[in-house]
Amino acid sequence: GPAPAQEGAELAAVIGATVPTGFEQTAAEEVQEKLGSASRISRDRGKIYFEVPARSLPQVHRLRSVDNLFVVVQEFKDYQFKENKEDALKDLEDLVKKLPWTDPLKVWELNNSLKKKKTKRKKHNLQSPASREKLNDGGEEGGADQNNTNDQEDCAQNPVAVEPSGGQDTEKSQGVTSRNGVEEEEEDNEQSDVKAEVQANSESGTKAGDSQPGEGEAKVLRFRVTCNRAGDKHSFTSNEAARDFGGAVQEHFQWKADMTNFDVEVLLNIHNNEVVVGIALTEESLHRRNITHFGPTTLRSTLAYGMLRLCDPQPTDIIVDPMCGTGAIPIEGAAEWPHCYHIAGDNNPQAVKRAANNICSLLRKNESKDSTALGIPLDIIQWDICNLPLRTGSVDIVVTDMPFGKRIGSKKKNWDLYPACLMEMGRICAPGTGRAVLLTQDKKCFAKALSRVGHIWRRAQTVWVNVGGLHAAVYLLRRTWERAEESRSFW
Amino acid sequence: KLGHPSELPPEPVPNYEADEEFLRRLHHVLLEVEVLEGSLQCPDSGRRFPISKGVPNMLLTEDEA
């Protein structure tokens, strides 16, 4: 008979992507450049939406500005919530059977088969500071909703549990059962003891995504619902919404609810009157991809990418990160802009050591992929930001994460450090064409320092971001045409 | 200085951009050779900066800064 229709080619997907807040435009540009699709930036900050053919999924996964991906089931731009809690929740329950699940589920299946093809990389255990940092980057929402924050924190725990251990899982599921709350239903199952079931799941080593849908086997899918709710006019909490929506999903598909070992993660995002139902395509955030050796304040790779893109690197540009820490920015730079030369430096020996290790990891990764590629255009040096061993005007781009008073160093130290940094960075940077992209939480100190070096640096753009729960800003500066002093006391 | 004295001229020759052989060797030295242990020497002062495990230490001493 005729060959089966190539479903993958015709199937289209509306993809939702979470990105560092403030860098929605940057992400949209990357999507346009690499996928040829235009993006919509939603009012719910930190998310963009675009449509692609399902066969482009591998390229979607290679986007460097996105943290997480999901396929949209349906979007409601102006959903009218009933004022009464019971009614509002009942509406959400009734919604389930009306949603167009078929195609999004096909996309989810396709995505699963992609995940299996990838060689399993060794995943390092992510420590809680990293996960907290990732989640808090979701940003603050307008409505004063305590539950919203709790849900974001709850959300954190699951992706981090890469290697589920019995004790931990039990604890977590107890903490978040209300969200997906079909505990009552679980008791109707073969195993009467919910606790035992959760433990059995984790100990038997069942991993998410292992179950194969179809193939003639009636394999029951496991799922959970994650609800993020923001806005001050809702009569219900995200916990309640997740619970009831989850109940209806369970009813409709006859899937099994499972907080930790789920195959399908259904997303219910409510931002005022904007409701988006989606299915997650990424298990853990992509933003830690380059870093294997973490420091206390390691920057997300997606944020590093956004910062680099902001300064529009051109082939042959020299890009310097003079306070590189564990090297997140230069490593992302070397990976994505291999036609530039990246120089990383720090005065702290621990940081330098970690950065060097991260670079080695990258080199090893390159070696295994492509036997002919040897070098990466990246170097690391231990140096003093106030006395950089670089010639005046020799650098095109300076990009760095300036020390935050609260996380490293102190606010008082920054007061003296910032102007000295800006002067030295101004010296090494090429007049007229040079630019700097600087991330800092100490905006007051930065503004003051900048006012003192107005003859060297002009502010071109400011992006407000959220780093580890702290409000920070990324400043794009342009180097003026004025030449710096040529005479140097030491260099 | 890196043990490749016979391959690279001491100074760039005129029109080096067009000299493919030179560019190839230069690329190799810049991007594919890593000094793990050694030093960098300042051509003016002669001051040496140690390189350990591939990382040069260019911090100045109290007196130098």
Question: Could you provide a short overview of the structure?
Answer:
By secondary structure, chain A is α/β, with parallel strands linked by helices.
Total of helices of chain B: 1
Helix run count of chain A: 16
Distance between the termini of chain A: 78 Å
Give the low-confidence spans of chain B.
1-6
Please report the total strand number of chain B as a whole number: 3
By DSSP, the count of extended strands of chain A is: 15
Radius of gyration of chain B: 15 Å
Give the strand order, joined by hyphens, for the main sheet of chain A: 2-3-1-4-8-7-5-6
Helix content estimate of chain A: 25-40%
Mean pLDDT of chain A: 77
* Major beta-sheet overview of chain A: 8 strands, mixed
CATH architecture of the largest domain in chain A: 3-Layer(aba) Sandwich
Structure characterization notes:
The complex is a heterodimer of chains A (491) and B (65). Helix content of chain A is 37%, strand content 20%. Chain A has 491 residues and is an alpha/beta fold. Chain A folds into 2 domains: 12-116 and 220-280, VC0802-like (2-Layer Sandwich); 301-479, Rossmann fold (3-Layer(aba) Sandwich). In chain A, helix 6 packs across helix 7. Chain A is elongated and about 70 Å long. Chain B folds into 2 domains: 1-33, no CATH class; 35-65, no CATH class. Chain B is built from 1 helix and 3 strands, in the order αβββ. In chain B, a hairpin with a 6-residue loop joins strand 1 and strand 2 (48-52). Mean pLDDT of chain B is 76; it is low at 1-6. The chains are: A alpha/beta (491), B alpha+beta (65).
